[in-house]
UniProtKB/TrEMBL annotation:
<feature type="region of interest" description="Disordered">
    <location>
        <begin position="19"/>
        <end position="78"/>
    </location>
</feature>
<dbReference type="Pfam" id="PF03976">
    <property type="entry name" value="PPK2"/>
</dbReference>
<protein>
    <recommendedName>
        <fullName>Polyphosphate kinase-2-related domain-containing protein</fullName>
    </recommendedName>
</protein>
<dbReference type="InterPro" id="IPR027417">
    <property type="entry name" value="P-loop_NTPase"/>
</dbReference>
<dbReference type="InterPro" id="IPR022488">
    <property type="entry name" value="PPK2-related"/>
</dbReference>
<feature type="domain" description="Polyphosphate kinase-2-related">
    <location>
        <begin position="81"/>
        <end position="292"/>
    </location>
</feature>
<feature type="compositionally biased region" description="Basic and acidic residues">
    <location>
        <begin position="48"/>
        <end position="78"/>
    </location>
</feature>
């Protein structure tokens, strides 16, 4: 794109976003707290709001301490790229076992905007046979889906025998974005925790493996990545107004993530938090968690070759 057109496009974005853009992505300012009164003489209402803010921060900190953490493990002298190649080879063998033995597996990816979900999915997709892999990028339900039970659109995406499915966002949107944006009533998203546990328990009882990963980054890391997208015309398309709106409600998402982890971590399908501030190490940790979770109880040894095939190739064994 010519320089002049780039500058015009940037100017249009600046005018359209205006003050909201500057406030949503400060160069180096803390994320504004929701619901606080302007600075000045404190009154009872302001003190109450500040107390609620402190309580929310404490609750947000607790879930990170309590959540199961997926730590990357490198072999001696191994860098993250070499580790990723080794793990990709292992994932290929695991997929072969799924196809041969008819296993089914689901990977659920949730996390902050710009946490690296897309890059992780690409690196999984690069090494696997796409005929036996499905990637579902979950957005808002269609008009037809809104007339159904909210879980129905996920039942239809459960993988078939021999396949793996990756959910980029998932049924957890009910207790995250739908809760925060008001798309679901309080009674609806509160009831959803039980519905989600029942849904996943049913899948697990059917022998489907489930791995749930929460990619976690700091507000500062997110700011750097969003700013990088804005500064690069080739990546600017990835930056949306939703990113800015979600960032402005960071505290609300902290609370929602905490409750989600606490109420939907199952013994056979716990939430695993991944520190995604370092993309390379986060991918290693994610691959290890996926291989371990999807490979639990799966025989990945070489399949027995039928006698007729061995005889055809002159193999007497």
């Amino acid at each position: 794109m010519p320089v002049a057109r780039v500058e015009i496009a940037r100017s249009r974005i600046d005018r359209r976003a205006g003050r909201r853009f500057n406030e949503s992505i400060p160069v180096r300012r803390p994320i504004p707290a929701q619901g606080l009164l302007p600075m000045g003489k404190k009154d009872k209402k302001q003190k109450k709001a500040e107390e609620a803010e402190r309580k929310a921060k404490a609750e947000a900190a607790d879930w990170r301490e309590d959540a199961q953490v997926a730590e990357p493990e490198l072999e001696k002298g191994e860098g993250p790229e070499a580790a990723l190649k080794r793990l990709q080879d292992q994932l290929i063998m695991l997929q072969h076992a799924y196809v041969i033995h008819g296993h089914r597996g689901i990977v659920v990816l949730e996390g902050w905007d710009a946490a690296g979900k897309g890059g992780l999915i690409r690196r999984i997709g690069w090494c696997l046979d796409p005929r036996h892999l499905r990637v579902h990028s979950i957005g808002a339900p269609s008009q037809g889906e809104k007339r159904q039970h909210w879980m129905q659109r996920f039942w239809t995406r459960v993988p078939e025998s021999g396949r793996m499915a990756i959910f980029d966002r998932s049924w957890y949107g009910r207790v995250l974005v739908e809760r925060i944006e008001g798309f679901a009533t309080e009674s609806e998203w509160t009831r959803a925790y039980d519905e989600i546990r029942a849904f996943e328990t049913t899948l697990l009882d059917e022998g489907i493996h489930i791995v749930k990963l929460l990619l976690d980054i700091t507000p500062e890391t997110q700011l750097d990545r969003l700013q990088s997208r804005y500064d690069n015309p080739e990546k600017r398309w990835k930056l949306t107004e939703d990113d800015l709106r979600n960032r402005a409600r960071w505290r609300d998402y902290e609370i929602a993530y905490g409750e989600m982890v606490e109420r939907t971590s199952l013994p056979r399908a716990p939430w695993q938090r991944i520190d995604a501030n370092d993309k390379d190490m986060a991918r290693v940790a994610a691959f290890e968690a996926i291989i371990k979770g999807l490979g639990d109880g799966v025989d990945v040894s070489e399949p027995t070759v039928p006698p007729l095939i061995r005889a055809f190739f002159g193999d007497p064994s």
